[in-house]
Design goal:
heterodimer, A: alpha+beta, Ubiquitin-like (UB roll), Alpha-Beta Plaits, 3 domains, 4-stranded antiparallel β-sheet, globular, B: alpha+beta, 3-stranded antiparallel β-sheet, 12% strand, disordered C terminus
Chain lengths: 330, 202
Amino acid sequence: MPKVTIDGHTIEVPDGTTILQAARMIMDKGEGNGENIAPPTMCYYSKLKTSGGYCRTCIVKVSKGSEKDPRPMPKPVASCRTNVMDGMEVQNITSPELLEARKGVVEFLLINHPLDCPICDQAGECHLQDLGYEHGLAKTRYDFKRRTFNLIDIGPYIKLHMTRCIMCFRCIKVADQITNHRYQGMLFRGDASEISTYIEKAIDNDFSGNVIDVCPVGALTDRTFRFKSRVWFTKPMDAHRNCTKCSGKVALWLKDNEVLRVTSRKDKWGEAEEWICNECRFEKKDIKDWVIEGPRHIDRHSVISANHYESLAQLKLDIGKQQKQLNGKS
Amino acid sequence: MQALTNRSKVVAKKEMTFIEKLYLPAIFSGMIITFKHFFRRKPTIKYPEQIRPFSGVYRGQHVLKRDEIGAERCTACGLCAVACPAEAITMTSAERKPGEEGLYREEKYAATYEINMLRCIFCGDCEDACPKEAIFLTDRKVDSLYTRKEFVYGKNILVESKENPISLVKRQTPQVKEFKHHVEFAHNQTYDKQKKVKNSSH
């Protein structure tokens, strides 16, 4: 059982744990002194095998390699792909030069990103927006033409904005691991690379909609929700239904009593808790199809928490329950 | 009863003197004050005919601007509505169809855009929040109307007409313009430029 110290917090983890997982374990234990010491991730997704290693946002500084070999690693390492060693010491937010390096990574991710957030449906829950806000520069230094693509409809439900893609490979991993057959992939190389389906072939697998949830930016979006509303004007609610294909546990995004969008429930790392099927996601847009459990918890730093009265709604639910009990007694 | 404080005064009802009983001197001194006011400068103005000058930063009725070619700048991003402290703004968005490039600047546009002028407090936060320089407050006053419904201004009132663009010269001082052309706001311009060279090499 190797022992690793990240930003001064020591934890003992099983063999084969990566630095990123160890950092998340520390945060899960409630340590971290109120600071988020888990490195941000754009391509790593704990539910997808072999994901990670592309985006470089999770880089950390290893100031001590291990107990046996205490030399520091010569350059920042990708924490999602580096396993911990016994006695390893890692610096994430405590190292100013690392934050500077991460700023450079964010700048590179944003080089071809169109910054069309006012139009993009992902705005408000976009990981790249958060990353740019927390780690990026306020202005761009890039003078050249950004690359642009035509929009592609992947089947009747999914829209691909290749212009916004940051090449994280998550959607490809989903198609490889969750669905039984994959049609889309990476075409071309380097700066010219793009996610595409050959001859824009429709993905008709039952779980293909999950590529929308794993996409960290607005490259893959829900066509049934396209331009319907801004995310922060909708009310997220936990709901479930009996589904033969998936667990049926979803998050509904409501406006009044209208179901605008159905997504999987995201955990605190922004990852889907359970994959949901296309029927739940795209076809059940009537509130009567769902059993509403209550309002979803939204982090107060998120713009979605504006006008999202979790406690008030909870209060109403509680009062309703009490009244039912009282009525049952009398 | 003993007084709590020693501020109280005993008022004696005293007989009026002969001059006071005449009343006329008091009437005349009062009339002098009245006549003096005839020759003073009037503090009021004849409002509908005469209008006071507005301050350059006066915040009145909103306008939704069009761009250089006359396309609507608003892209229904909802940032004005989320910034609005009075929750006066609502909108729905729609997707631009091919061929409507001259009407709307971006691929998404506001199908409806409503400001409730009774709720609006004219704080100008919507103007600050707008990333597309679409909404501005102008030096126009909101008209008085008869019903509450009429105060919900839709796009027919808010969007400026192509023939009579609303001048923002007073608000858009050279200093403001220079600030907005700062390199930090350059992404708006580059995006416009990009759009013109659509569908490039790939």
